[in-house]
Amino acid sequence: MTADRRTFIAGATATAGAMAGGRAFALSGGAFPKRFLWGAATAGHQVEGNNLASDIWLLEHVKPTMFTEPSGDAVNSFALWPADLDIVRGLGLNAYRFSLEWARIEPEPGAFSLAMLNHYKRIVEGCHARGLTPLVSFNHFTVPRWFAARGGWTDPSSPELFARFCDRAARHLADGIGYATTLNEPNAVAIMADVFPPQFLDTVRAMNGAAARACNSDRFRNAMVPDPAEIGTLQPNLIAAHRAGKAAIKAARGALPVGVTLAISDDEAVGASTLRDAKRALFYAPWLEVAKADDFIGVQNYARARWDGKAMLPPPAGAALNAAGQEVYAPSLGNAVRYAHAATGVPVIVTEHGVNAEDDRIRAGFIPAALAGLRDAIAEGVPVLGYVHWSLLDNFEWIFGYKYRFGLCSVDRTSFQRTPKPSARILGGIARRNAL
To answer: Mean pLDDT across the stretch 25-30?
Structure first.
C-alpha cells in the first residue's frame, strides 16, 4: 500500500478448486486448510536499493519533492536476497512475495537486460531451493523513468508497453512462479484522488514538473502518486494494462494463476445515511468487476474505515492506534476478505496485511487476532489460499522514508543486519502448526 498508501488509504489450481463453491470448511481447532500459503512480502524499490532508472528514484532527488529522504541503498536486498529467503524459511513460512523492477529489466525502451532477468530468476530458484512458493508481482508502483517521461499510465500506449514487459519477463521467469500478479493496488489511484486534501494536487504537479525538466519531458507522470485530476485517464489505462499483462503472462504459461492486488479497507456503514456504499463503488467496483475474470484476487488490508453521511469518521475513543494515529482493528482482515470474495466469486490470497508500529508488541498481538478472523471467514466458506504479511523487513516507506516500521524484522541501517522481532516468531509458529 501508497505514498505511503498504507497511511493515506487506511486513513482516509487444486487448492482453489477444493475451496470453491461457498462450502464451509470442517476445520479442527484453530487449523487452516492444507497447503495454505504462509508468507512475507517485500517490494523491489523499497528493499533493493539504488533503483537508478526508476521514476521514484528521480522524484526522491528533484526539488520540490514530497519524499522526506531518498531510498539510497534501501535495505540492500538486491545483494542480500539469499539472507532474506533464509529468514523466511527459518521462520517456518512457505511463501515469499516479491516484485520485479521494470526499470532494471527494461532501463531503456525495448532494451531488456538479460542480467537482470537472470537476477530475478535466481530469486525464484532460491525460493524453490528453500521450499518457498514464489508470489511475483510484475509491477509494484515504480516504473522506468522513460515510461514516466512519456506520461506514465496516462499515455495511450502504456497498456501495450506494460504487456511487452510482461511478455519478456514471463518468458524468462514464468515456469518457476507460483502465483503472479500484474499491478499492485491499481485502485489506489481512485482512493488517493478522493482522500488527498486539495493542496496535494499542487504538490504532485510541482514534483512531476521538476521531474519532467530533469529528463527533458513535457508530460512526466510518476506511477505511484497520481494527479487526482487525471483519474479518468489513469484508471481505464490501468485496467487495460492488467488485462494485456495477464494475457502476456498466460501466453508464456497458461496454467500460471494470475490476478491483481487491491487495497481494500473494512468499510463500515455508520448511521441510517452513510457514504459507505458510494465509497465502495468509487474505490473498488471497477476493479472487482475486472477481477471476476482472474484466477484469484489479492486482498491488501490494513484498516477499517467507518463512514457516516458526511465523511470517514476518526478512530473511536480509546481505540488502539498505530504509529500514524490510525486505528488498529484486527477484524478488518476477515471482513475485507469476505467482501472481496462476495464481490468477485474468485479465490482470495491475502497478499498484504500488517501494522505500522514501532512497538512490536502491537504487531505480536495483532497478527493472531487478525488471523482468527481470517480463519472464521474460511470456515464460513470463503476460499482463502494464503496469507502474506507486509512486510518481511523494516524498509523504505515511500514519501515517509524510513520513519515507519511494518517489518517482521528490524534492519540495521549501517550493517543491514536483519533481526527477527518477536512478532516474526509468532507468525512463524502459526505457520508451522498451520493453526492458531
So the answer is: 65
Which H/E stretch holds residue 290? helix 285-291
At 328-352, the pLDDT tens digits run 999 999 999 999 999 999 999 999 9
Angle between helices 231-252 and 158-173 (to 10 degrees): 30
The mean pLDDT value for 427-431 works out to 98
Confidence (pTM)? 0.94
Predicted confidence at residue 197, as pLDDT, reads: 84
- Which residues neighbour 103 within 8 Å (Cβ) at sequence distance 6 or greater? 51, 52, 53, 54, 55, 57, 142, 143, 144, 145
DSSP code per residue over 115-178: HHHHHHHHHHHHHHHTT-EEEEEEESS--BHHHHHTTGGGSTTHHHHHHHHHHHHHHHHGGG-S
Per-residue pLDDT tens for 184-201? 999 999 998 888 887 888
User: Could you give the CA distance from residue 179 to residue 297 in angstroms, rounded to a whole number?
Assistant: 11
Select from 411, 395, 413, 393 the least CA-distant residue to 91.
393
Residues 6+ apart with CB under 8 A from 66: 3, 59, 203, 204, 207, 225, 399
pLDDT score, position 60: 98
> How far apart, in Å, are the Cα atoms of 232 and each of 153, 155, 185, 189, 191?
11, 12, 17, 10, 13
SS3 state at 295: coil
Kindly report the length of the chain. 436
Backbone torsion region of residue 320, taken as left when φ is above 0, otherwise alpha when ψ lies between -120 and 50, otherwise beta: beta
